[in-house]
Please model this.
Amino acid sequence: MNRRYFLSSSVALGAVAALSRLLGVAENLLQKPDSSNGSKDTRGDTSKSKGIKKVIKTDAEWKSQLTPEQYNVMRQKGTEYAYSSPLNEIHDRGIFECAACGLPLFSSAQKFDSGTGWPSFWAPIKKENVIEEVDKTLGMTRTEVLCAQCDGHLGHVFDDGPKPTGLRYCMNGVALKFEKQT
Model:
């Protein structure tokens, strides 16, 4: 890849990440809180989770449990900056779990270096552990990936990945935690 293309692509990705973060904050400010407790209701549709028991918490509970960056990404659908996640450099054998609820999401056996700056996988551990929804933000149509247990935003899936699936689950590192296996 030539250097000019790489640099312009990196700048463009950074701009998209920053815009996504700003739009997520603005969207959260515009949402009406649940009148019963002053917090946003985070209950999801259990029919999409294929039997996985939902973790239901108030917005205040999520804020107290997650770091500010995790909260921005997972509850406000933000995006971390490309190349900012230490999970990009993990090559050990293990499982990538949801940072909010601990549901196993991806295996290191399905991880690959996509060159995008975000941890990428060609498949989840179990298809029912993630929910895929249409995302039409930022003037484009993408497929958003959510944790099936807590509805936390993880990232997006694209159809430009490696074999055998041809998919690239491009995840925010702050939305995952790594459990090393021996």
